[in-house]
Design a protein that fits this description.
This protein is about 50% helix and about 15% strand. The radius of gyration is 22 Å and the shape is elongated.
Length: about 280
């Protein structure tokens, strides 16, 4: 059971997904979770009623009782929030940022010396407690506190500690990855409908097929290539399908999708931090 007190600075959809997972997991008592925003009392009332957590407007928050602050506001507001937090935090408190494109060094540079910062990136599956979440500790983060952060994030799925320079490729795989699977299913459904099957049945078949394949990959020691070879009989139906996929450039297209998303993630981070610096 986690004994620290957590405060969400921001109450948007990602914050709510994380709150939902934490409360359902029972890893942390709901009364140890505080949710704040600047002025939307109606939104706070909704979250308090639905999850049983504590809610306050940001100006009413008792900063001294909080161990970890989860930054979940809009990235454009980060400078104002960091300026406000700078003189309210002590070195033992941790900032956990879910803000895309904001590096740990950017935040550390705008806080007092040796402030603990951890950057995390859940994906949209967090609302089902099936997220793949990256964790990047800043240079001053205490590893005991990082372990608490990881335990919190396991409430919404699997957690992967990565080097921050790998965050862009993580985005290309896990952040954008759900859309690749949905795109695949769009075309599977389209083909199935053309062959006379109904959409509802196709969706259930496709989703279960993807779910089963993913589970097998997680539970077996074989590589994806070995698993593919195991289910591919020479001159069989699967071989014919894979030959058609290869002839259409399927593998290359997937590689380019990941690289394209990772490259755009890097560009967006540079653009965002550049805009923030330029506005100071």
């Amino acid at each position: 059971m986690i004994k620290q007190t957590i405060a969400f600075l921001g109450a948007g959809s990602m914050a709510e997904a994380m709150i939902s997972g934490m409360v359902e997991s029972e890893n942390i008592p709901a009364e140890q979770i505080i949710v704040t925003n600047r002025s939307n009392q109606e939104r706070l009332n909704h979250i308090q009623y639905k999850y049983g957590v504590r809610t306050v407007l940001k100006d009413e928050l008792n900063f001294a009782e909080v161990d970890q602050f989860i930054l979940a506001m809009k990235p454009k507001d980060i400078d104002a929030v960091l300026e406000d937090l700078k003189n309210k935090l002590n070195p033992d408190q941790v900032l956990v940022s879910v803000l895309a494109g904001i590096s740990t060094s950017y935040m550390e540079d705008r806080l007092n010396d040796h402030q603990q910062v951890v950057r995390v990136m859940p994906n949209t599956s967090s609302m089902l407690r099936e997220s793949a979440t990256a964790v990047c500790p800043g240079q001053f983060a205490d590893m005991e506190n990082v372990e608490v952060t990881k335990a919190l994030l396991r409430s919404i799925g699997e957690v992967f500690v990565i080097e921050e320079e790998k965050m862009d490729v993580f985005t290309g795989i896990a952040g954008s990855g759900p859309a690749y699977f949905y795109y695949l299913m769009e075309h599977i459904e389209e083909t199935g409908r053309a062959e006379g099957m109904d959409s509802e049945t196709l969706r259930e078949i496709g989703a279960q097929t993807l779910l089963g394949a993913a589970k097998m990959m997680l539970e077996r020691d074989e590589s994806p290539a070995e698993l593919r070879e195991n289910v591919t009989s020479p001159n069989g139906t699967t071989a014919a399908g894979l030959d058609a996929l290869a002839a259409s450039g399927g593998g290359q297209a997937i590689s380019e999708a990941v690289r394209g998303a990772a490259s755009r993630s890097k560009e967006l981070s540079a653009e965002l931090e550049g805009l923030l610096v330029g506005s100071r």
